[in-house]
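Minutes, project check-in
Item: structure for the 498-residue chain
Input as provided by the requester:
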Amino acid sequence: MGCFCLGSFKCTPLLPKSLLFCLDSQLVSPYYVWLGCSRSVNVSAALQAFETDSGNSVGNYSPKPVASTTGLKRVSSVIRLGEDGSDSEVDVDTQLEQVVPPSSAFHYHSQTPWRLPYYTHAVHNEFRTFIYAFTWEDPMEDMKYLGLTKDSSILCISSAGDNALHYAIAAGPKRIHCVDMNPCQGHLVELKLAALRTLSHATFFGMFGSGKLSDFEALLDNDLSPWLSSAAYQFWRQNQCAFDKSFYRRGQVLMHLGLKWVLTLGGVLEDAKRMCNVDTIEEQDRIWREKLRPVLLSNWFVKLVLDNPAFLWNALGVPLAQRRAFLNEGSCYEFARDTLDPIASTALLKTGAYHYLLCLLGRYTPSSCPAYLTREGFDNLRKNNFERLESFRLHTESITNVLRGMQPGQLTHAVIMDHLDWFDPGATEVEEEVAELKRVLLPGSTVFWRSAARNPWYCEVFERNGFALTPVGVRNGPERAIDRVNMYASFWKGTRVA
């Protein structure tokens, strides 16, 4: 830790501006203000998070435990004020608190152990920002099969944190491990946790529902910063304009802007807005069939946009290996048709099918949004002294490395989304990850995944490692959706049996 010479440098307003003005008017240069915290701060929660939750699998050292204070005494002289106003010096016994300084700067972030320590890898340089501003998978469908309880410990991919927050609201598991190699996804989840901890529901919905907040910079410095790791704070300081216009034009920016351009070009932008506000499935499906479908499933749009690898990656986050996975089972048009055709007849965008409402409007509404944005979900996450928020642990690592730091039985569930689609058949990374899942998940524990393929190649890897597989949902043409998003061709459950 150190100090800043306020008389020599322009000070970033980590301190309230009123205090800086007061200091500047009262002190004579050069003067120094120490910014930091005492080394005797209680970091037991951070040490617990580092050693137990991350298995000390990140960083290059093992933090030393705080020394025991049993039997250590010291004699202190204190001034005691008598009843008659006189004072006297007396000796009292006090505990000698012997504290070992934390071994990592992350441990000075003592408000919460959400973000686990990590060191910058070369791969982190590939991520300038977050790719996913929201989470594509349908958490309502997850909850039908997960079987989470308050004693559960679940690992999931961070993404934008929407589904992890849904799990916390719906079941309140004792531990939620969010894992992502992209540090910026972790910064986004941290921001949501900090905002849930400090902001009103109206302000919170403005941030992540409407996607606009005029005073984000002030809130970041004055309210959110104490609850953010240094890395997350610096990221949002550099991206403080994120909420100026529309937060959801970031991340998958090409998806929203590209979709808006296509709908405008096709003359159906107003129809798309109307589709988000109708009250019946029948009317919603009619607008889709008569207005939007002829544009979004037209030959030119499919060939120019949906069959474009660059667009799929930059707009939808679809890597080349995943594209090859669904093309092995059909054409790009067939995949798009099977995805979109059943949506309008499955659930109303106005009252719950919020993934596509966000795509069309660029924002959520109070009646159609993820659970964490509802007033009920917001209050649920904050009750009992924010107990459910304290279950989060954010890892900036690969799933395999996180699992390597865990003990057998440390997890009861894992939800790995579609990330194994990112690997080509036979990839050793998949073999290693499934082997670690087998080691950490005890018999009876479960792992869930989705795939762009109806029969993903790595199902065989799970079976070979002692998992019994159940196809929870598999698309079979355009007639029926497997959930409210229907973005994937299959949804799988693997139960550890041997």
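Outcome recorded: The chain has 20 helices and eleven strands.
No further action items on this chain.
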